[in-house]
Amino acid sequence: MRTEHVTLRLPTEAVQAVRRLAHARDITPGQFMREAIGAEIRRSTRNAKTPNRADEQLLGPLRVLLASDFARATSWEDLNDRLCAKGYALREAGGGLALHEAPGGARLCKASELGHAYGALMRRFGAPLPGHAHRHLADRILGTARPRDAPPDDFDVIEPF
Question: Contact, 100 vs 107, CB < 8 A?
Fold first, then answer.
């Protein structure tokens, strides 16, 4: 295949992100850009919708890098602090979670693709991610949902004194 030299102007933040992502995949920034452009060309020439899955070459290094943080975290706050220290953050994504770069915010993958499903993390920490919109999901997973036919909690608590 014949190649051509191309000069590309990008914002400094984008260049830093490309370098970081290329390093995580153990490839050069140029190879990263060639793969990204190739993927976009393939995507745009297809009619079928492609699944929103992260590249396995990205997932492997991320799993290794973050495994101990997910394993040692004792709460949502602890997990968030550990991820932030490495430049990442978990954010709500539909009914689950996604890993994003911090502070840039670029979405990298779903937490479940790293092996850490939102439901399992909720059960482990005993609570949903603070601010997550899907409370009904948390109630169902944590067993805090009240049955529809349950009587209201309208009893009086009697103190012994």
Answer: yes
- Measured CA to CA, the distance from residue 91 to residue 103 in angstroms comes to 12
Note the pTM of the prediction, 2 decimals. Answer: 0.55
Q: Where are the beta strands (DSSP E) in the chain?
A: 88-93, 96-101, 107-110
Count of the separate structural domains present in the chain: 2
Q: Are residues 108 and 141 located together in one domain of the fold?
A: yes
Residue 134: give the domain boundaries.
55-146
Q: Which of 115, 25, 102, 106 is nearest to 70 (CA)?
A: 115
Given a cut of 60, is residue 150 above it in pLDDT? no
d(CA 97, CA 91): 5
Q: In terms of domains, do 66 and 112 share one?
A: yes
pLDDT, residue 50, reads: 44
Confidence of residue 48 (pLDDT cuts 50, 70, 90): very low
Give the C-alpha separation, 138 to 128, whole Å.
6
Helix axes 12-25, 29-44, angle to 10 degrees: 100
Phi (first) and psi of residue 22, to 5 degrees:
-65, -45
